[in-house]
Amino acid sequence: MDLSVINPALLIASLMVASTPILLAALGELICEKSGVLNLGVEGMMITGAICGFAVAVETGSPLLGFLGAALGGAVLALLFAVLTQVLLANQVASGLALTLFGLGISALIGQGYRGVKPPPTGRIDLGPLSDIPVLGRVLFSHDWVVYFGLALVVAIWAFLKFSRAGLVLRAVGESAEAAHALGYKVVRIRIAAILFGGACSGLGGAYLSLIRVPQWTDGMTAGAGWIALAIVVFGSWRPGRVLVGAYLFGGLTVLQLNLQAAQLPVPVEVLSMSPFVLTIVVLVIISARRRGASGAAPAMLGRIFHASS
Amino acid sequence: MIRLEKRPEPSRAWTWATPPLAVVLTMIAGGVLFAFLGKDPVIAIKTIFWDPILGEFAFYYRGQLLVKAAPLVMIAVGLALGFRAGVWNIGAEGQYIIGALCGGAVGLAFYPAEGWYIFPLMVIAGALGGWAWAMIPGLLRTKFHTNEILVSLLLVYVAEQLLAASALRWLKNPEGQGFPGSRNLAQYPAGSNPELIAGTGMHLGIVAAFIAVIFAYVLLNRHMTGFHIRLAGQAPRAARFSGVNPARLVLFCFGVSGALAGLAGLFEVAGPAGQISIDFNTGYGFTAIIVAFLGRLHPVGILLAGLLMALTYIGGEAAQSTMGLPAAAIQAFQGMLLFFLLAVDVLTNYRVRLSRGQA
């Protein structure tokens, strides 16, 4: 065992990269759940985004177009969920599961011709003198644009929910759809928009995996990241800032266990690989035990069907 | 303007008509998908749904049909109990793996001893393993109100790592020349689950699946617990007033579904699969969720749905070898089936009304 190979500065830098896909997906799901809709299809939307983004980036040679394609792919899949749950009033849990199962299948189908292909690289953005600061510059200011986009999105969503009228309406729809409906807000339309936003964010998160983090395409490559994102929304008690903390904690764990694997800790690799999942469960338990059911902070209408005439 | 009007109670006719309707719609949409892939849709659908039952090589496929359907039915019957009561165990895949690991480990521990008692002990260990793995989300939900959907699903990834560690380290075949995977249970008579009638594919797991269906049917229709399950799902408040203990119901649903999934895993590892290997699990635990809904959460419906889903597996494999249809296409096809089912279900619960003006 040689723990000296673990460099703290590098660890933090790679932590920011490792947590970006989960952060993006969790932020999308946060907006979706704030509108009262529980979409368990994050994993399916992420993997669809991963392959759509990958395919578009490879075909056009532009990672930026790839990310746009990924957001679109995720949103299209989310649209299926929106039609099922909002128009056809299907059960949200079952529909979300269907989305995940379908997304895993369809992504593998699209991805057949893309195994072993290398995507065009996404460059780091040049932050000028900031990147030249010793240690800090390397840790904080030498990433690709998506990492900063994720951080900006945290702030944007926080401000949107806290200060904007639209954010207030969104929260009203999630807390009491009947009241929002009585006030004349189009509950179904608002929810569909929130679901689509969630899908687009999950798609971006997936594309970050296939275009930057890994970067290549393999079937089922999200490997549970979507479910972790769902857990992080609960962990973050539906608040963007805490979601960021959760995503970074989880990203840190992932990077740390990979480093420990490299350092040949005398523990089976499998035990290290399962540790992020086990710790996520432990954190979920602590959170819910402390807050009597995690339901305190959850949007009141979460997962319930809204039908205007009933 | 099309308007939906809630029915006072779900339509009985549509309850039974929607699954076949969803299957037909999936065949159409699947045909379009296959056409996009450059395959003749009619031949593809015929290869998947017709040839395995009535085609030239049907005698071979029919046995396989039961082999594939048994684990699906067994898992789905257990899950359906929970889904009815609003208890969401979606980690059956993990319980299936742990059942296979525990049962397999007991069998391997006795190797090479012979004795009639070995296989029954494996069966008990398999059921206990699945039960224990399902108790984790069950107990966390009842003790700490932790979301059981997330916990049961996250445990699937933990179980997959345990499977990998078992296949590569703990239960690895000492005489396997370094290859991953355990000893082959099929070559160990006391610990194997052989075909009961040669050539039919019939094994004890299939018998157990039928027993599970009957058990669930009796439980739901003739037993107080079954009544409580249905009541808790339809009217949670009324259930509490009539003395249903929600925590006990959650644990019951998780326990039964976990034990059944564990049993399915044990019968698979000792029978058709033969050994514990890294890629032992093939997604039965997830497909069983589709089966449970397709079967309307009703034991007899699940039996039929399990056979249909097994057909898509077998027909899909046939289409893969004869037409070059990618395996992923079948997976997408199965996902689509659940989509259509949930979509047409609106007809069961709502009346479609045409009306003029604003809705």
Notes on the structure:
- The complex is a heterodimer of chains A (310) and B (359).
- Chain A has 13 helices and no strands.
- In chain A, helix 1 packs parallel to helix 7 and helix 2 packs parallel to helix 4.
- The longest helix of chain A is centred in the N-terminal third of the chain and has 27 residues.
- Chain A is mainly alpha-helical and 310 residues long.
- Chain B is mainly alpha-helical and 359 residues long.
- Chain B contains 15 helices and two strands.
- In chain B, strands 1-2 form a two-stranded antiparallel sheet.
- In chain B, helix 4 crosses helix 9, helix 8 packs antiparallel against helix 13 and helix 13 runs antiparallel to helix 14.
- The N and C termini of chain B lie close together (7 Å).
- At the A-B interface, helix 3, helix 4, helix 11 and helix 13 of A face strand 1, helix 6, helix 7, helix 12 and helix 14 of B.
Keywords:
heterodimer, A: 310 residues, B: 359 residues, mainly alpha, two-stranded antiparallel ribbon, 2 strands
SSE inventory with pairings:
The complex is a heterodimer of chains A (310) and B (359).
Chain A: H1 8-34, H2 42-60, H3 63-87, H4 92-110, H5 129-132, H6 136-140, H7 145-163, H8 165-175, H9 177-182, H10 187-213, H11 225-235, H12 240-262, H13 269-290
Helix pairs in contact in A: 1-7, 1-10, 1-11, 1-12, 2-3, 2-4, 2-10, 2-11, 3-4, 3-10, 7-8, 7-12, 11-12, 11-13, 12-13
Chain B: E1 2-6, H1 12-36, H2 41-49, H3 51-54, H4 58-85, H5 92-110, H6 118-144, H7 148-170, H8 204-222, H9 224-234, H10 236-241, H11 246-270, H12 284-294, H13 299-323, H14 327-344, H15 346-349, E2 350-354
Antiparallel strand pairs in B: 1-2
Helix pairs in contact in B: 1-2, 1-14, 2-13, 4-8, 4-9, 4-11, 4-12, 4-13, 5-6, 5-7, 5-11, 5-12, 6-7, 6-11, 8-9, 8-11, 8-13, 12-13, 12-14, 13-14
Outline of the structure:
By secondary structure, chain A is an all-alpha fold.
Shape annotation of chain A: globular
Count of discrete structural domains of chain B: 2
Q: Beta-sheet strand percentage of chain B?
A: under 5%
Spatial shape of chain B: globular
Greatest interface: A-B, 53 and 52 residues
Mean pLDDT of chain B: 85
Q: Strand-residue fraction of chain A? A: under 5%
The major beta sheet of chain A can be summarized as: none
